[in-house]
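job 3f2a | input accepted
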Amino acid sequence: MVFALTIWMDLTLIAVVLGFAVILALVAARQGAAGAAEVSGKKRMRPRNFRLAVLPWCFGVFLLANLLADVPFLISVYGFGRMWNERLYIVEKVHGGGPWFVSNGDRLIDGLYVQYVFAMAIFVGLIVVSMFLAGRYLARK
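job 3f2a | predicted structure (141 res):
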């Protein structure tokens, strides 16, 4: 049961990442079609094409969010003071329902799904901020 739940969470995260990539590619394509008709004086301004970079960018942000989610997860398990004073970090994540090992020798068995919730929240926040900044500062040539 635990193994199936872990596989389901991994597949859900991958589906969400791919979904965000497709949505962002469609938005970029729509903005590109709308921006191609704009004329500024005599020179036509074309938007940059970000469609090819969206999927690798989403995958990279997903990996970063998965790494960053360990800190709030450990804070939720041990509390901020103990996590900070003992410099706790996750040594090994055993996927497939196995325990996760922490640097103080503890094995975490229950409540591992909370790390996935933190990872998705961080992922969505980073994607929204990064795509806003990319659209704002890199939109025109």
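job 3f2a | Residues 2-137 form one domain.
job 3f2a | closed
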